[in-house]
Design goal:
It contains 9 helices and 10 strands. The strands form 2 sheets. It has a 6-stranded mixed beta sheet with strand order 6-7-8-3-9-10. The chain has a 4-stranded antiparallel beta sheet with strand order 2-1-4-5, with helices on one face. The protein is globular.
Length: 256
Amino acid sequence: MIRIEHISKSFNGRSIIKDISATFETGKTSLIIGTSGSGKTVTLKTIVGLIQADGGNIFYDDINFTQLDIHGRKAIRQQIGMLFQGSALFDSMTVEENVIFPLNMFTNMTMKEKLNRVNFCLERVNLPNSNKLLPNELSGGMKKRVGIARAIVMNPKYLFCDEPNSGLDPKTSLVIDKLISDITKEYNITTVVNTHDMNSVMEIGNYILFLFNGEKRWEGTNKEILDSTDVELDNFIFASEFMKEMKAISHMEKKT
């Protein structure tokens, strides 16, 4: 579990996130949503520790991350997996070399143990026998799956995904969403996803945190979001005709 309490962050006197509190439960997929400039990226980076919060506390289970020294934070970070927006694969490295990279950095495993772990993770993301391919030989969806394999290779307790469906077609996005959700449940991970993809919200949003102008505007589940009465959330959700139809269907079903 990850718990944030009243975190805030300003840059050059401009407040970006303001007094945000939330709880991200283990074994569930939690989504941070909002328009561009809402503060969701800064919130994610602050939770991970890439940005230092100006105020508030961040707890990983019962450990106050904000009060740890550099060694304590390193121990927590070794339990974190990260899927970056652009996959962030090393172009000059093969798939195998990309996935093995964290094991080389942070473990004393033998090469045989590392390769066994790499192969296990690649099979888990449905990319067996892709070890010797280079990133430029992969499709966008395959790159994301390699990114997920690398993110879980250290068997993390916590998984962060920054816009995992960015640049992907709707069908591939569904595959990535299901993979993230399945891995979260299968390995009982605390997963936090930063996204603006409403398909992801409806498919895997066990918990949703909606930010607006750097503030927490709404929180709930994907089953509750269609019944929201918050004007700004409605404007965000129902920008598309598809989502408007979804809301209409939901209301009809409740009446019958």
